Amino acid sequence: MTFHVLVGFVLPWLVGVFFIKKASKTMLLVFAVTAFLALLFNDIGAYAKWWEMTPHEMESITTIPYSLGVYPIILTLMYRYVLPRIHPVWFVLLTALVLTLFESALVLSRRIEYHDGWNVGWTYVSYVLSVSIVFIYARLLLKAFGIPKSEVSSK
């Protein structure tokens, strides 16, 4: 469990702290929905037995550091610094790839085991879906509150 807290939460927040001041509006925009979706997807996957994380007896708890750490931090940074430079479709695909590569490292280190036909391809699809939802949600919020996109992204 210590590994998951360090890799999934502490290290991402150490990086994220440097960007909070510049990306605070972006964090407010995408953090909550990203964390919610990560918790939801992780619980569905664990319940369906598509994957298991070590330690197995604390599986639902084990995903929390990632859901509140690495996933929202990566999405915030990608939304703030990458989205303004590329087309939104490429943003979704690239962000999903970054998250999939991160998870693949956990699979290779045997911290996650896939079952019942789940594989890296399905992982990528799930990240494309979740990043798309975050992107659409963020754009709807910006539009609903009349906030210019330039306030949450930087070129």
What does this structure look like?
This protein is mostly helical and 155 residues long. Helices cover 74% and strands 4% of the residues. The protein contains six helices and two strands, in the order αβααααβα. The chain has a two-stranded antiparallel sheet with strand order 1-2. Helix 4 runs antiparallel to helix 5. The protein is globular, with a radius of gyration of 15 Å.
Percent of residues in beta strands: under 5%
Number of domains: 1
Number of strands: 2
User: What string, H for helix and E for strand, traces the elements in order?
Assistant: HEHHHHEH
Walk across the major sheet and give the strand order: 1-2
Low-confidence stretches: none
Helix vs. strand class: mainly alpha
Average pLDDT confidence is 92
Specify the number of helices.
6
Helix content: over 70%
Instruction: Output the radius of gyration.
Output: 15 Å
Shape verdict: globular
Features:
2 strands, 74% helix, 155 residues, membrane, mainly alpha, two-stranded antiparallel sheet, transmembrane helix
SSE diagram, text form:
Layout (H helix, E strand, L loop, with lengths): L1 H46 L3 E3 L5 H4 L1 H5 L1 H13 L5 H21 L3 E3 L5 H26 L10
Antiparallel strand pairs: 1-2
TL;DR of this structure?
Keywords: Membrane, Transmembrane, Transmembrane helix. The chain crosses the membrane at residues 6-21, 28-51, 63-82, 89-109, 121-142. With 155 residues, the protein is mainly alpha-helical.
